[in-house]
Structure formats: structure tokens, C-alpha cells
Amino acid sequence: MQKRQPKNTTKQRFTQDRPLRVVELFAGVGGFRLGLENCKTKKKFKYKVVWSNQWEPATKKQHASEVYINRFESENHSNEDIAQVKTSNIPDHDLLVGGFPCQDYSVARVLSHAAGIVGKKGVLWWQIHRILKEKGSRAPSCLMLENVDRLLKSPVSQRGRDFAIMLASLNDLGYVVEWRVINAADYGMPQRRRRIFILGYKKNTSIYQKIAGLKNPSDWIKNHGTAAKAFPIKESLDSKSFKIDGGFAEISENFNKNGGQTTPFKNAGIVINRNVTTLETKPNYRGKHLVLGDITLDENDVSKEFFIEKKDLPQWQYLKGAKKEERSGQNGFKFFYNEGSMVFPDPLDKPSRTIITGEGGPTPSRFKHVIKTASGKLRRLTPLELERLCMFPEDHTAGQPDIKRAFFMGNALVVGVIEKLGEALAQKINEA
Q1: 102 catalytically annotated
Q2: How far is the C-alpha of 106 from the C-alpha of 377, rounded, in Å?
Q3: Which residue in 149, 180, 400, 173 sits closest to 284, CA to CA?
């Protein structure tokens, strides 16, 4: 008699001998991997990345993939366009993670061979969908995905449409999904970086059954869920429920068509069988808060190229300052351009602003960080300091050009957020 194979379910106990297998897509320089491997979990629970993929289109040199390989070695790492990777070449796994690029998630009624789904810009979200669908019964039990929070209200013409398509597609693949917008600084981390985190649990898991058995789904959002355990919230009464109806093309064409500038999605929610419960949350945190000054180097340890020269200071002040200027468009139409001032230099007693991909290089910029040293000099942040703001190991990206190192951190997530979510997910799995 043939021995029955175990189901892909979180009812299994994961340990050092049977770690939870992770696939990391759109891996960048490994933020998800670092966070999960840093988790402090009970019962010798361990996350193990069994396959990863990082591919930067339209560039010959794959800088981020080079960093990933330098830090984690090349075994089971793919540096090729994920659209060209066969699902059969991706190992079976328990948890799929990734910070997928934010593009256009609309769908069309064409391409029958793709089940009617096509992203207008070769959208990478549909590669996640493809992998989950083609894995079928061997699809991962859990998902942990990340994106910018504007996903909740894009596009401008149909606020929330893109997110509705994603939620409906995951539900149709058999996942219940919770989401939370988390600002790392609200929970003591040194950077104000607001991102949406999406967690999914497949039907054959005990976590799914726990959620399905709740009389009020909002209890999972407020008290029992993975995000709630990792990042406690204050109770909110501003809740809303609705259903996402129709096929993907119908959702793309009609969702919130007359909603104006308002999205139906709040900053937290859960969806099961396309029934959405969503509410606005506020952080509930009383611990230590790290600030920009906590991570900065002594000025004597900073290379001179990071200091602002006197001749460049007026341009920095102009770019950081308020503006009301008459300008002309390409057609000769004149208009007034208004822009408020920014704090300059950046305060050291508060968490930093969000790092952007253009943070590197000496060229004056409105959005780059500038701090004042103890001696009164002004300087930009170094790559090591940017890594600290994202809670990466020091010099994790060393060996790459400084501009690229800054770019990596502008693209990265805050590792501490993944640590907390990973610890809470491990707890949920071991409770199941």
C-alpha cells in the first residue's frame, strides 16, 4: 500500500529539522530573508529560504543580485526574468514572500490562453498569481507580500480597483487575506516608512479555519491576527464591509467607478470568499523609539565627499525651501508652481523621512537627507547610515557604488518589520 504524502498545511510542526520553506521573489538585496532568518521564535522554529529570484530589467549589470549572492551565496538563487522561469523549476515551499513592484494591475478581456488576465505593463503581480495557480495543490500555505500604501487607492480614476483585483484573485485561488499598512516609525524603528503588508492563508490550513470560524472577522484584524500580534493597534469603530463581485475584467472596468477620490479600503482589513471587512487603525506602542541621531556616525568617521560645500549650499536651500513661481508649460501656458518648505537640515531627534531611490550622489536635491554635525557642518547620509535606517546589517551592500547602495535602501523594506511579522506568523502556525 502506497504511503500517503502529508498535505501542504500549517498543521505540521516546523522545527530546525523541518524548517518552514520560503521562496523569496523580487528579492532585492534580501530584506525579507534577513528579517525571517533573524526571527526570535519558540520551539526551535526556523525559516529557510529554499529559492530566490532577483532580476532588474533594462540593465546589463545586476547589482542587487550580486549583493544577494555575496551575502547568501548563489545556491538556489535565480537571476533571470521571473516571467521566463517555469513554475516547475521553483521548489515547493510553505511561505511565499516578496515586495512586488507597483505598476498597473488592470486586466483585459483578451488573451484566452492566459485566462483573460493581462497586465498592461507586463505586471509582475500576475507572475505571483501564475506561480500560485500552477502550483495548484502544492501552492504555499502562507503568503507575505509588501507594497507601497498607495496600492489601496490606485488608480486615480477608480480608487481601490487594483487592490480589489488582487484580493479577488487570491480569494479565488483559495486564500483568505489580511492586510495592514504599517509605518515602521510608529513601532520604534528609526525610519518613517509606510508600507502595506499582505498576508494570505490557504484553505487547507488551520489558520484559515480559525478565521472562517470567527463570528466577526474584524476580531482577527483587531486582536487575533498575525499583524495585530506583531503590531498592536488601538480599537477603531470606523469599519466597513462589502463584497467584490464579478470577474477580473468586470472588476477592472467597474470597481468604484463613481467613487470619486475615496477608496473603500481602510488601512487594515481581511477578505474571505470576496467578503471584505476593513477598518482604520491607529498604532498602540509604548516602547523605545529610535531616531535619526541614534544611527548617525561621528563626523570624523565620514568621508569628505558627504559634506556639503559652501558653493552648493544656496541650491540646497532653494530646493528645500518654499516656492511660488510662475512657470510655462510646453504649449506656452503659464501657471504658478507652489511647494511648501521642508525641514532643513533633518532633525536628529525624530525618525528619519522615508529613504527614496534617488538618495545617493552629491547633487543637491529636495528629497535627500541632510544633517548637521556636532561641529555645525552639513552633510548627506552615508550608505552605512542608510542601511541602519532600514535595519540591515552594517555594510550589507558594501562593494557596490555608493549611488547604488542608496538606491537599494530606497527600494528596501525595514527589516525589523519583517522580523516582527515573522515571529507572529510562527506563533500562529504553532498554535494551529
Answers
A1: yes
A2: 49
A3: 180
Q: Tell which CATH classification among 3.40.50.150, 3.20.20.210, 3.30.470.30, 3.20.20.70 matches the domain 20-285+413-431.
A: 3.40.50.150
CA dihedral 319, 323, 327, 330 (to 10 degrees): 50
Provide the pairing of β-strand 77-78 with 47-53: parallel
What does the domain layout of the chain look like in residue ranges?
20-285+413-431, 297-347+356-389
* Whole-number average pLDDT of the chain: 90
pTM, entire model: 0.91
Percent of the chain with pLDDT over 90: 76
DSSP string of 143-205, one letter each residue: EEEEEEGGGGG-STTSTTHHHHHHHHHHHHTTEEEEEEEEEGGGGT-SB--EEEEEEEEETTS
The span from the CA of 112 to the CA of 108, in Å, is 10
**Size (the chain), residues:** 432
Which has more confidence, 387 or 124? 387
